[in-house]
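We treat protein structure as text, and this decision shapes the records that our systems exchange. The remainder of this section carries one protein's record, kept here as part of the documentation:
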Amino acid sequence: MKIHEIREIIKLIDQSSINEFKLESDGTKVTLRKSSGTETVVVAQPAAPAPVAAPVAVAPAATAPAPVAAPVAVEAPKAAPVADDANLHKIVSPMVGTFYSAPEPGKPAYVQAGDKVNASKVVCIVEAMKLFNEIEAEVTGEIVKVLVEDGQLVEYGQPLFLVKPE
């Protein structure tokens, strides 16, 4: 499933009265759930290995959602209070994908809280559709807080790090 397809689904869900939407296609599960107002939480995770099937039609699922009482195992992390963030720069995810804090398993993390970074310093990797995208700090400063855990699914625009600019 392509990122632009997920974005289109998000727009459709935001404009509708649907509160929750689930889709499984090509080995990927996507769950969209409206939280408060028009904000949509996106959770995507690899599905169990299965034979590749024809793409799932979006329209029928969108017209008849089934209420689900069970909570989703992975949710977007809550941001720190705005008063604490006021002077901090947020490094955000430029795409939906999986967050990795290190270049490969068993290696040390690119950065940790307290580390000094410059604008071109790679701080993490976001993997989307088997492409590993290096994310740079964008600003010179000190990493104050890492907001996500290694291997966590992240959504477009989700804050990953808080940086105190110099």
